Amino acid sequence: MHTEVLAIDPVHPDPSIIERAAALLRAGEVVVFPTETVYGLGAVALQTGAVERIFAAKGRPFNDPLIVHIAEEDALEQLTSSIPGQAKLLARSFWPGPLTLILPRSPLVPKLVTAGLETVAVRMPRHPVALALIRAAGSPIAAPSANRFMHVSPTTAQHALADLRGRVPLILDGGPCEVGVESTVLDLCSTVPTILRPGGVSLEALRAVLPDVQLPSQLVDAVPTNALQSPGQLLTHYAPAVPLLLFDGSIESMRAAMLAEVQRRVEQGERVGVLVADEDIAAFRESGAVVRSLGDAAAPGQVAAALFASLRALEEADVQVILSRSFDEHGLGLAIHDRLLKAAGGKVFKPPSGPQM
Ligand code: TXA
Ligand code: MG
Fold first, then answer.
1. Which of 59, 253, 275, 309 has an alpha carbon within 20 to 30 A of 356's alpha carbon?
2. C-alpha to C-alpha distance for 45 and 57, rounded to whole angstroms
3. What's the whole-model pTM score?
4. CB 242 within 8 A of CB 343
5. What mean pLDDT is predicted for residues 303-330?
6. Residue 64 Cβ < 6 Å to ligand 1
7. Sign of the C-alpha dihedral, residues 4, 7, 12, 15?
8. Is 241 helix (H, G, I), strand (E, B) or coil?
9. Residue 295 in this model has a pLDDT that exceeds 80
10. Helix, coil or strand: residue 214
11. DSSP state at residue 289
């Protein structure tokens, strides 16, 4: 299959290009499109045959449910069996935007979309291309991130093309994604609203609207930064093609530990990549590593937007291992830490920071 890439204005999308993509979707095909978080691989959510093509193109197992994207809140009536009051409250505050809500599923939603679960994941993206496409298709759109299964999510059309060339007919290229990490997935079907995946809407922002929002125990465990004993379901995604080692601790001890590891590996003839912030660049300049900065460590928005592109860039630089520093876990930082931790298979190296007693 030939994969066509069409450039589209991300702010004022050309209706004729949207219509070409929508016609493919209505015909049961898949289309890659930009959202504010990452690129999505969409198909009409209510057509089982179309949704099957998503799984085929990604090589995704059928036990991993999809997010259904909508352009108006009214579409919830069709997709859910009931709408909790909390959902309306959150929708008012965060939609359109990077928040996915887990809600009771309506029988109209194919089992394939929800992996047989009695719940459905729904989000209203805020990217003008995504919204225009959903409206033109005349149906909610099921869409996972547009990467091959287990690979890093794409934040540019070129990333999606690298993973899906020959497997999808059309990629809409709206430029780089603004947020750069996926949406926050919030379960409203559990007794207490629970974040299943931290993402573009922060825990703090959610708690300002729903004070009882909680993190699942796996994420709570992840925060103190020790090695996780049993990497669970949460740790299976976002694997870069090369192993990643995640370092934590005070800036000085983290840098020193990373530099020592770079030196050890470079001496053995390994090609090493490091993922750092602007403030670390000077320390690594002479290290012999391929250095990639995620920007200002104090600006999590910048770091999140650069993260997946930088992981891919280091892969392309043919490094054999990536050493990454950690970032503060407040706000968007929780999602950044989560993605780095997943890429590291759940393990963190934390050097002792003070003098040892
Ligand atoms: O930002 C995003 O969310 C992007 C863009 C394209 O919208 N999409 C995305 O989709 O990241 P995907 O398929 O890569 O991740 C969907 C996540 C998975 O972790 C999946 O397990 C979870 O949502 N999920 C979907 N339906 C669910 C359900 N019914 N219950 C619990 N988790 C669900
Ligand atoms: Mg994904």
1. 275
2. 16
3. 0.94
4. no
5. 97
6. yes
7. negative
8. coil
9. yes
10. strand
11. S
- Residue 47 in tokens: 């057509």
Residues with CB under 5 A from ligand 2 (ion): 145
H helices present in the chain, as ranges: 15-26, 48-58, 76-79, 85-94, 111-114, 128-137, 157-164, 203-209, 217-222, 251-267, 281-284, 300-316, 333-343
Indicate which residue's Cα is closest to atom 3 of ligand 1: 183
For the CA of 182, the nearest ligand? 1
More confident residue, 237 or 17: 17
The CB of 121 under 6 Å from ligand 1? The reply is: yes
pLDDT in tens, 217-234: 765 544 433 333 233 344
Q: Which two structure tokens, joined as six digits, stand for 2?
A: 């030939």
Task: Establish whether residue 38 lines the binding site of ligand 1, counting it when its CB lies within 6 angstroms of any ligand atom.
Answer: yes
Structure tokens at 113: 């979309």
Nearest CA to ligand 1 atom 10: 144
How confident is residue 263, by pLDDT bands cut at 50, 70 and 90? very high
The CB of 96 under 6 Å from ligand 1? The reply is no
